[in-house]
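User: Please fill in residues for this 118-position structure.
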């Protein structure tokens, strides 16, 4: 079985305008993102690195605009991560803790797991 080297940024927190309800477009609300990337060609060659700042910046860029759906965030982050040559696989989880539902809920979450198709 092949091995895989992964990098995870867990629990990144942002305030953004996300949702389909009118007030969600006006008021920023918390959003949490987990990102795991697996290096292409793992195990990685000795000394191979991927700058965490680059990963964080791509997530921050995706969540900076007006968003409607968690799926939109997860797909956008996954697409950008897979555009990095060193990345062969990506998993993104996006959580929205304040969801307008008629009962208690910890959070809504969307998770995508994608592999580079070269």
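Assistant: Residues filled in for all 118 positions:
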């Amino acid at each position: 079985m092949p091995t895989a080297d992964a990098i995870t940024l867990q629990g990144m927190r942002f305030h953004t305008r996300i949702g389909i309800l009118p007030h969600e477009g006006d008021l920023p609300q918390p959003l949490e993102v987990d990102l795991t990337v697996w290096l292409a060609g793992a195990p990685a060659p000795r000394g191979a690195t991927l700058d965490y700042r680059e990963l964080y910046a791509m997530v921050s860029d995706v969540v900076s605009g007006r968003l409607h759906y968690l799926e939109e965030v997860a797909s956008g982050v996954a697409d950008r991560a897979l555009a990095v040559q060193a990345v062969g696989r990506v998993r993104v989880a996006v959580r929205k803790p304040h969801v307008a539902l008629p009962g208690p809920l910890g959070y809504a979450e969307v998770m995508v797991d994608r592999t580079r198709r070269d």
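For context: The first strand starts at residue 6 and ends at 16.
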